[in-house]
Design brief:
By secondary structure, this protein is mainly α. The protein is 63% helix and 0% strand. Helix 2 runs antiparallel to helix 3 and helix 5 packs across helix 7. The longest helix has 24 residues. The protein is globular and about 45 Å long.
């Protein structure tokens, strides 16, 4: 199986994604916890059905020491007892920020207030930006039908 379009070989797409990847690096270097960042990427990718991103972020999270239990329960985070309250707030914000079309009014004040209890303004800025960026990656990969399964941890960074 191959993608409909190779986003890394296209001159235009390559230029664009270089900037988005650089923007993502700003988030990697932020004070938003790395484990939270991976959980957010995984949850948005589950919602969007992005196999390429799920392949990448579950493998990167595992390589960084994340447990299989926590990775396996991301889709059921509400019922799972393995996440901190801060992680749960980030996952709620991720779901609402990813499912904008499903929720009239977008992100609720309650979800925002809950996230704001656990994250400072810089971390909230990183969280909002991360949700936007992973959704962009998800959408591009789904549109071009990017195959999943061959990613090696750290392959792109």
């Amino acid at each position: 199986m191959s993608a409909r379009l190779n986003l890394f070989e296209s001159p235009l797409a390559g230029k664009l994604w270089k900037h988005i990847i650089a923007a993502n690096q700003v988030l990697v270097d932020s004070s938003l916890p790395a484990a939270t960042q991976e959980l957010v990427k995984i949850r948005a990718s589950q919602i969007n059905g992005c196999g390429g991103c799920l392949d990448m972020h579950t493998k990167d999270a595992t390589a960084a020491g994340e447990t299989s239990l926590r990775l396996n329960l991301v889709a059921a985070w509400r019922e799972a007892t393995v996440y901190t309250e801060a992680e749960r707030a980030a996952l709620e914000l991720t779901e609402q920020g990813t499912r904008l079309a499903d929720a009239a009014g977008g992100v609720t004040d309650e979800a925002w207030a809950n996230a704001a209890k656990h994250y400072d303004e810089e971390q909230l800025a990183a969280l909002v930006s991360l949700i936007a960026i992973i959704n962009a990656f998800n959408r591009a990969n789904v549109i071009v039908q990017q195959p999943a399964g061959d990613y090696q941890p750290g392959q792109f960074g």
